[in-house]
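Much of what follows relies on a compact textual record of a protein's fold. A record is reproduced here so that you can trace the correspondence yourselves:
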Amino acid sequence: MRISSHPHRLGTATLLGLVLLVAGTFGAAPAAAGPPSLAAGAAACEGAVVHSVDAAQPGTLPRLCIAVGGVVRVVNTGPGSLLAQPATMVDCFYAAGTYQCRLIRTGTVRLTLAADARELLVRVPAAVPGQPSTACSPAGSVVDLDTTDELRWWSPCLRIGATLRVVDLGPGLLAVTPADAVNCHYEAGIHACQFRRPASVVFTATVDAATRSVTAVAVR
């Protein structure tokens, strides 16, 4: 009796196919995961707005992104409890348990709470298209800085077309840098300066041989 070899060949082929299938399943390299989003963990940027942070809340302070001209309010804290760096990029004042810090130049500002060394990092872009600038005086408005005021001047923010007036100051006693960012005129003890373009503008008044300066931020 002749025994056919075909069933044996079929079994061998089937076995080989199964081996290759298993090898392909377990030997295949897993698909490489795509790179994490660069925006992961980053704060969404806001316009020049007022953003409040409660220092009494425990835990890590948030990372913020607020356009130049905006204000960071740190509430429920005491006097001398906040360190702002670099000082050339932010102007802070304290009253009634609250620090108000105007962001006057672009870059990164670090606000440190002295009590527990927690840090609040704020990224400050020049502008955030499509976002409001509610921390700034609108176009057509007038903001006065009085040279007879005993309190120090705090940096204002104004929209293009708004006017900053330095009052009770004689002619030729106001310096503006950069001068091309504003149109200024003088009349009867008032220097009126209208903003022409976005800029951080330093106003320096000379009164009785002493000077006082403030940085005003102009935004669109």
